[in-house]
Amino acid sequence: MDILNVFLIIVGLILAIAGMVGCILPVLPGPLLSFCALILLSWIKNWQIFSQTFLMVMGAVTALLILLDYIAPALGAKKYGASKRGLWGSAIGMIIGIFFIPPWGMIVGAFIGALVGELASGKSGRKALRAGWGILIGNVFVVGLKLAFTAVVLFYYIKEMF
Hints:
Helix content: over 70%
Strand content: under 5%
Number of helices: 6
Largest sheet: none
Distance between the termini: 10 Å
Number of strands: 0
Order of helices and strands: HHHHHH
Shape: elongated
């Protein structure tokens, strides 16, 4: 194995690990980085370690997770009666929270932001809490799915690395 391949394998490992970190930090596209690691390792190994079907399934799951990242919190919010202000509050709270108590600030910030947004839209405390809870559930659900996916990718990456 030449030095370039070793370097690219290390880059791929960094991508796979960054994919896991990206599940918590909204700045990084976690599942996409992990999938890119699989593609890079496959390319380095002349497309012989992972089947075409495996890569297509992992690509489809990656696309689904990217879509769910936007849809699930909104579905949770809708199910629990959140308003547009609640959704905006959640997004802003998530961004602010990540700076104060990373990585959990994203989840706590989303909940508090949704709560503040709902209260600002005139909802009662109970209804605002319910909407904030829906957004929280949607966010936690997606983060859990993304973490599971990126952990599987990291497992396969390490297993086939050498």
